[in-house]
Each structure stands twice: as structure tokens, then as C-alpha cells.
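We were asked to recover a plausible sequence for a given structure. The inputs and outputs are reproduced exactly as logged, with field labels preserved.

PROBLEM: sequence recovery
POSITIONS: 290
GIVEN STRUCTURE:
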């Protein structure tokens, strides 16, 4: 059976089972159950019928997907439909991770708002250039970048690193990445939005440090419009890969995937392959995917 069909079948069965159990518990105890990442702005239709943005349902679907992919790494990921304002997949969406180069999105917004060189911002984003990021970070008073954008974007799990210079150790979550992209699409002035998304759509295959950036979303969304910011790191002691961005016309679907592995057991190529396999399953979950 194709992966998507299997995931939907298991998701449907699990959703029905959870609903039945909740109903029985409510009858027996009289209680209710609750659940415990050209560039124009997105124009949203009214929010879908009640239940679409049911995070527990998205979590059940994500668990079924993971059973199919069986990854070795430790993941947090989301698939978010910005047009209908709801999560389709959600796994550890509020878990906190090192942002790696995803912090460059915050640096880019602050730099553009401060009137800094847009060409430098473009190069920093498309090639994930650390030297430019560090220079802009210093000029923008470092952690103030994160603090200002947390307030402006309404981020809930994002915070600066303890060490002033380590912008890559900024903490964030997959759900906060969704808020970042929503802000980029809906709140940035048209000029700034166009600069950011031109850079993300024109991502270089190889980053400024020689790292292959084509893992995950770019490898999974072949033939679809995408705009992506990637991240990578190691030696904390784990190996980290991050892939975030939008997929589909008008940047409709927002994807954020954080992965971590024991670097003593998994090399860069294996980690990238596993990220791409998971991204293929995530992108394949988009309604209408073949």
C-alpha cells in the first residue's frame, strides 16, 4: 500500500479509537477530555469548521507517519496549513531545539528593519553565510535581535543563547517557526518580504561553508514551489539538522523539521538521507499529493 494511504488509514483508525475512548470516559466519569514552523501576503479564508485545528488529531497523524518511516533520529516536526489556519501534522511541536541557522531569519528581519545592506541579507540567507550573520548580529546588538523579534512575532519558546556571540544556539521550537513564517508572509512590508523570500526560493545548493543544503524539503518537494531556510550543526555532542520553509502556491504550507542524532553512530550523509525521507512523508501528507 502507498505510504500516504497507509498513514491515512492508520490515522483514521487511531482517531476513531481515541474518540471512542474519550466518549466512554466522559459518560462514565462526567468529564471531558482535552489535548495536553513573487511573495504576496497570504489571504486567508475564514477558519475551517471546528475541529480542523485539533492539535491532538495532528499529533495522532504524526505518530502514524513516524511508524511508517521508522527514523533513527530524534525529531520534532510540523506541517501547517496557513490558508486554513490549522496543523495537519504535529510531533513535539513545542519542544525546544537549537535553532542553528534558522536564527538567520530573525537576523534578516532585524537587519532589513534597520536599513542594512539587503544584498548582504540575501547572501546570508541563500548561502547560509555565517560570517555575514555574525557581522550583522554584532551590529544589531546580538541577543537584542532575538528579544525584539520574540515580542514582534509573538514567539513562545524562542530565547537567546547564554553566550552573547552564539546566535546559532538561539533556542526555538517547530511551532515558533510556524509563527515566524506567518509573520514573514503577513506582517513584513512588501519590500522586505520580497527580499527574504527571493533568497529562500533561490537557496544555493551548497552553503558558504561547503555544506550540501539540498537535504529535506528541497529534496522532498521536487516539482512544487518552495522557499527554504536550512540549518546544521554538531558537537553538543549530537549532530543536528534543521529544515524549515514553505511548500505550495502562495507559500500555503509551512514545514519545520528538527532532527538530532548521536554523531558517533550516524554520519552527515545518513542524517541528511533520514531527514529527506521524513520530509517526503510530511510533504506527501499535503492534501492532493500524489
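RECOVERED SEQUENCE:
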Amino acid at each position: 500500500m502507498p505510504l500516504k494511504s497507509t498513514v491515512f488509514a492508520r490515522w483514521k483508525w487511531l482517531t476513531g479509537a481515541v474518540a471512542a475512548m474519550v466518549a466512554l470516559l466522559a459518560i462514565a466519569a462526567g468529564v471531558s477530555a482535552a489535548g495536553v514552523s513573487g511573495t504576496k501576503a497570504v489571504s486567508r479564508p475564514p477558519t475551517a469548521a471546528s475541529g480542523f485545528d485539533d492539535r491532538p488529531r495532528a499529533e495522532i497523524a504524526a505518530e502514524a507517519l513516524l511508524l511508517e518511516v521508522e527514523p533513527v533520529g530524534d525529531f520534532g516536526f510540523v506541517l501547517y496549513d496557513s490558508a486554513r489556519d490549522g496543523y495537519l501534522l504535529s510531533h513535539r511541536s513545542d519542544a525546544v531545539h537549537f535553532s542553528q541557522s534558522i536564527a538567520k531569519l530573525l537576523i534578516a528581519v532585524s537587519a532589513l528593519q534597520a536599513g542594512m545592506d539587503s544584498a548582504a541579507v540575501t547572501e546570508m540567507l541563500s548561502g547560509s553565510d555565517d560570517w555575514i550573520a555574525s557581522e550583522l548580529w554584532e551590529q544589531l546588538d546580538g541577543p537584542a535581535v532575538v528579544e525584539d523579534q520574540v515580542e514582534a512575532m509573538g514567539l513562545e519558546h524562542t530565547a537567546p543563547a547564554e553566550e552573547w556571540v552564539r546566535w546559532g544556539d538561539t533556542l526555538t521550537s517547530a511551532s515558533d517557526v510556524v509563527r515566524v513564517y506567518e509573520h514573514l508572509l503577513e506582517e513584513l512590508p512588501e519590500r522586505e518580504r520580497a527580499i527574504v523570500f527571493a533568497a529562500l526560493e533561490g537557496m544555493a545548493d551548497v552553503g558558504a561553508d561547503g555544506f550540501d543544503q539540498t537535504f529535506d524539503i528541497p529534496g522532498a518537494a521536487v516539482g512544487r514551489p518552495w522557499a527554504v531556510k536550512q540549518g546544521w550543526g554538531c558537537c553538543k555532542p549530537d549532530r543536528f539538522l534543521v529544515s524549515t520553509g514553505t511548500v505550495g502556491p502562495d507559500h500555503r504550507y509551512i514545514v519545520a523539521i528538527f532532527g538530532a542524532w548521536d554523531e558517533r553512530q550516524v554520519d552527515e550523509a545518513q542524517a541528511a538521507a533520514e531527514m529527506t525521507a521524513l520530509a517526503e512523508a510530511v510533504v506527501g501528507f499535503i492534501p492532493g499529493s500524489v
